[in-house]
Specification:
Elements lengths: L13 H10 L11 H14 L7 E3 L2 H12 L4 E6 L3 H4 L4 H6 L2 E5 L8 H4 L13 E8 L10 H13 L3 E5 L3 H8 L3 H4 L7 E5 L9 E5 L2 H4 L2 H7 L8 H12 L2 H20 L6 E2 L7 E5 L2 H8 L5 E4 L4 E5 L6 H16 L2
Parallel strand pairs: 2-3, 2-4, 4-5, 5-6
Antiparallel strand pairs: 1-7, 6-7, 8-9, 9-11, 10-11
Helix pairs in contact: 1-12, 2-12, 8-13, 13-15
Length: 343
């Protein structure tokens, strides 16, 4: 069933499937001591222009976030994030359970943290009765589909570093942000002062897998142990890392992100002209947030799958994938028009 429910719903890019098939040959050393993983690590370093970076491959986004935060915190620390952040809303408390650190959720209108909204939470340093602020955690793109500019990221990194804190970027849709701003992965991470980040793939054409990249040596030191304890160390690691070789070296990560972004913009262009629809967030990536009359939403659900975002005001989320077609968009918007017009 074609839908706009999530970019997790799409299939695997044929080039990635071929990489998996090519890796399914003979035997190799398990747990990442294989040539595919070495080559994928080099691909990450090359994109970042950082020969010292030590990438770690994991199963999924929640695992990547949890392992990253374990590397950054002790149980008496706190993690500052937007109230809409994936680590706050959609990970069943895993970051708190696995780190012991407190999660401080900050309300924002667009999913983005700024130094102004973070500063009120930077207090209690050295006071034993308070959790100690340690991590500013951002999502790129945000859960509202909005994008941090490099300047905005650098401002948060500077703020974090001035308080001996760490800036972590959940980069599940980082490719979409790079595509929207036409900047490189290096410009969006290394050059901005990001300390540790994940780069997703499952939402962008991979079968499974994420890569966690610490950019400070002390953060990398214990990640292999956290990865194992968090059940994110895959014995047949080559099947995660083999995907990242063409994904990064052939720029599939950026190409597919551009496709899903273009599809979302086309969907926006079509929907914004339909009477009775209200777009609630700027369309900067592959997601669209809109409010419709409830009776229209109920009818749409009979044919298409999508998620509510704010049920109280009937706000829904539509997400385009790397393989969303013009036909998908025409069919959906045509049906929406017919419902609105009553024809």
């Amino acid at each position: 069933m074609r839908s706009f429910g999530s970019d997790n719903n799409s299939g695997v890019d044929p080039r990635i499937m071929q990489a998996l098939k090519d890796a399914n040959n003979d035997h190799t050393i398990a747990y990442g001591d294989d040539p595919w993983t070495r080559e994928a690590e080099e691909a990450v370093r090359s994109l970042l222009g950082n020969k010292e970076a030590e990438p770690f491959f994991l199963f999924n986004g929640t695992g990547g976030n949890v392992v990253a935060l374990q590397a950054c915190t002790l149980p008496f620390h706190s993690i500052l994030c937007a109230a809409t952040a994936h680590i706050a809303v959609d990970e069943c408390g895993a970051p708190v359970k696995m780190t012991g650190a407190a999660l401080k959720e900050i309300a924002t209108p667009d999913g983005k943290l700024t130094p102004a909204v973070v500063r009120p939470y930077l207090h209690g340093f050295g006071f034993e009765h308070h959790s100690q602020p340690k991590v500013i955690a951002i999502s790129q793109t945000t859960e509202l589909g909005t994008v941090y500019t490099p300047q905005e990221i650098k401002a948060l990194a500077d703020l974090a570093h001035s308080h001996n804190m760490v800036l972590f970027m959940d980069g599940t849709r980082l490719g979409n942000a790079c595509a929207f701003l036409n900047v490189s992965l290096k410009e969006m991470t290394v050059d901005c002062g990001v300390d540790i980040f994940t780069l997703g793939g499952t939402k962008n054409g991979l079968m499974f897998g994420e890569v966690l990249v610490p950019l400070r040596k002390e953060l990398a030191e214990n990640i292999k142990y956290y990865r194992k304890q968090t059940t994110q160390l895959y014995s047949k690691m080559r099947f995660i890392s083999a995907q990242f070789i063409p994904y990064l070296n052939e720029n599939i990560w950026l190409e597919n992100a551009k496709r899903s972004n273009r599809a979302a913009q086309k969907l926006y262009d079509e929907i914004s002209g339909i009477e009775g629809t209200e777009i609630t967030q700027p369309v900067q990536s592959n997601a669209l947030f809109l409010i419709l009359p409830r009776e229209i939403t109920d009818k749409l659900r009979e044919r298409y799958f999508f998620y509510d975002w704010d049920a109280a005001r009937n706000e829904v989320r539509l997400v385009c994938s790397w393989d969303t077609t013009d036909e998908d968009i025409r069919d959906f918007t045509g049906y929406l028009r017919s419902l609105v017009s009553g024809s």
